[in-house]
Design goal:
The protein has eight helices and four strands; from the N terminus they run ββααααααααββ.
Amino acid sequence: MARRFVGVLPGGPRRVRRLGSIPAVVVLGPAWIVAVVLGAAGVGKLLRPGAAVDALRVLYLPHSAPAVRLLGAVEAAVALAAVVLGGWAWAVVAAVYLALAGAAERLRRSAAGAAAAGGGNGAVAGCGCFGRSSAPVGLTHVAVDVVAAVVAAVAAGSGVGPLRSVWPELPAAGVAHLLLVGAGALAVVALLTVLPETRLAARQAPAPDPRIHLFGPTIGRRPSGSPAATPGSRVP
């Protein structure tokens, strides 16, 4: 029978709840990563709400700066509650990420429709997830939100407890765990911001000059097989 996180029991060994054959402490890494990413998105909206205004406008939702800050406060509060309280709070994180996945899909379709109609590259549908302008929302945003929702749901189902009962189960006083969570969260943020922006910049880069050859400029060179220039004639 599955056992809950109870920390260190007086006179007895540590007992760790398991999800199937996986200790629930193993779920903490991915779960805390998605919580940190959600919290970072919330703090970004609180500090710089302007970037998400256009996204809410496209979604036909209240899109004033106070509305964006309220959304950011909800995201940050839910993320903090999941880490500190555990339990049911992870189910709320899963629900929030599912809602974000639905919003990302609508923004993606809006950007694709605008591009098909010749209305630009769809940049208006950037999510502004972390309080800054970003490339148009794509499948990467939708996939990350869905995966994060699944991770949070697994954390809720595994019975991950509050921070005070989980911390004693972490090796090396939790330092290694925090370092890995921080690195994972940075990687996810880069996946949602740097990668889409790099792809957009690559698509918008000017086409290479066809006159520039791999081994140098071809201006003034006579293509092979063309007749030699004669005196008084102009080489095109």
